[in-house]
Amino acid sequence: MKQYVLLSGADYKGEGVTFRVLCDNRRRRLTAANSARVPLVFTTFDLQAGEVAVTRVTYEGGRARETTTRERPFSRVTAASFERRAAPGRPVRHRFKNGQTGVMSITDVYGAIRGIGEREPGTLAEFSVFSHGWENGPILVNSDDDRTARRYVRDGVPGAPREEDIAVPPTMRDPDDKDPRPALDFVAPTMDEAALAAFRKAFAKEAVIWLWGCAHPVEVDRLLSKVERHRAYRASPLPDETPFTFTDLTEREITYLQWYLRPVVGEFPDPRAVTLRFGEIKHFLCLANQATYAAAIATAARTRTFAAPLGTGAEYEGPGLLMRVAPGHAPHARFYRVHLGRAFDPEGHGYMLFPPGTSCPRP
């Protein structure tokens, strides 16, 4: 038996996106590729519908037979689940409201995976997440980790309960937050050692995790583009000592670079003319990618993970298909492949491999 866990996020922007369709497309594709006719079990978590669907594929008399059971243990996510936040000069943000305790969380999916590890270890062949995304992981509902949890207190007084916000301890997840958090998800109290062990035991030896959304901090996209347009750059192997001088870095780009490179290069003496060796640029991109959710879950699960490389976006491939890294970011993918030696997914969707425990030696 092989098991698959598929998770579809919510269309929090209200753009008519249906990630559940992509989960179903993935299930059909994996079933069609099952030439060995091994029994399959697909557990699909539809966050927006609050539904969990279990599809079992068996082969009786040589013919595939599918049976699906559905339950809705979670609250639906609707337009009323979000508030619009506007700031001058910035796009409107749709944020998930606090206090919605009945909505599915990433922790519920982790719990299901741990259950597989406890009851049927080594049978989980794939965990796929179809959703919007950013460097800190899939965006399931665009909730806030604001370190406060909203609760409702009656105090014995008739009428509507009183709202109260309480502080959340440092390593505990915010109960109002439904989205993945790489710094909190794989440590106690969300996962203590026993829970993490069960999580890991679920995955088969050749299992894979797919994060099908974006990983597109604008600063990394622009920094990569400035490197690729630099006169010293070439898309073939380049010596680490090659100097790159930048005279057009924005304040945010400088902050991003300094965050990762300060231990290596110190403070930039003149932000108007920043010179870095090519090896330092590669080191920055290695460190930045290792700070992503993709790297965190790969290491926690000890399972190879495919996700968009940092600085790239994802898009639909087309009807009946899946998602892919946008072809317009092909130069970035080439940079990672040629200069960082990173591998990409064998299915040709353009997602980069995050091997468990990747390190970034100092240049």
Summed up, the domain count is 2
Structural class by secondary-structure content: alpha/beta
**What is the subunit organization of this protein?**
single chain
Low-confidence runs of at least 5 consecutive residues: none
Taking all Cα atoms into account, the compactness measure Rg is: 22 Å
Q: Count of helical segments?
A: 8
CATH architectural type of the largest domain: 3-Layer(aba) Sandwich
N-to-C series of helices and strands: EHEEEEEHEEEEEHEHEHEHHEEEHE
> Which percent bin holds the helix content?
25-40%
What shape does the CA trace take?
A: globular
Number of strands: 18
How much of the residues is beta strand, in percent? 25-35%
The third-level CATH topology of the largest domain is Rossmann fold
Terminal CA distance reads 45 Å
Biggest beta sheet summary: 8 strands, mixed
What is the mean predicted local confidence, pLDDT?
A: 93
CATH class of the largest domain: Alpha Beta
Spatially, the strands of the biggest sheet line up as 4-3-2-1-7-12-15-18
